[in-house]
Write a structure and sequence with these properties.
single chain, 164 residues, alpha/beta, 4 helices, 6 strands
Length: 164
């Protein structure tokens, strides 16, 4: 199991759910929900840097037969834009006392079938209703995505999904 903090994203049309792991890669926890629109990817880049994440795991919606529809195309495009922003930040590292600090952040895409359904069920079981549930469902879905990724790596010894 690789050590280090990971961030997961559940990217939707209106919001991006964000979750993070502990440095040992054991537990995923919610971070925040980022509104889609101007500055959304900049906020994600800031979170990646602030949390010192070495990897970003993005949920990719697939159909039951494993195919990709229009939603997957949009998420792939958004994920590529995020990857470019992360690379740009890595090309211009800022350090203290003139010492450059370069940290490479890998972006991986993983199958996210049923994550929102699972997150909705978990929140319902915990008594979250209506607007309160909608406010955190994207974070909860990101937690499900990341926890599955962590569990997969722990069980197989291989990183989850595919890198961009």
């Amino acid at each position: 199991m690789r050590r280090g903090v990971r961030i997961a994203l559940d990217i939707g049309d209106a919001r991006i759910g964000v979750a993070t792991s502990d440095p040992h890669g054991i537990l995923a926890t919610p971070v925040e929900t980022v509104r889609r629109g101007k500055g959304d990817l900049d906020r994600i880049v800031t979170l990646v840097h602030d949390l010192e994440a070495f990897e970003v795991v993005v949920g990719l919606p697939r159909s039951l037969n494993g195919g990709e529809g229009p939603a997957a195309v949009k998420i792939r495009q958004t994920t590529e834009l995020l990857r470019q922003k992360l690379v740009a930040g890595q090309d211009n590292p800022s350090g203290t006392d003139g010492v450059e600090q370069v940290r490479t952040t890998t972006v991986r895409m993983v199958d996210e079938r049923f994550t929102t359904v699972t997150a909705e069920r978990m929140l319902r079981e915990r008594g979250k209703k209506g607007a309160k549930r909608r406010a955190v469902v994207d974070q909860a879905a990101a937690v499900v995505i990341l926890q599955h990724a962590l569990d997969f790596e722990r069980e197989t010894g291989n990183p989850p999904g595919r890198p961009l």
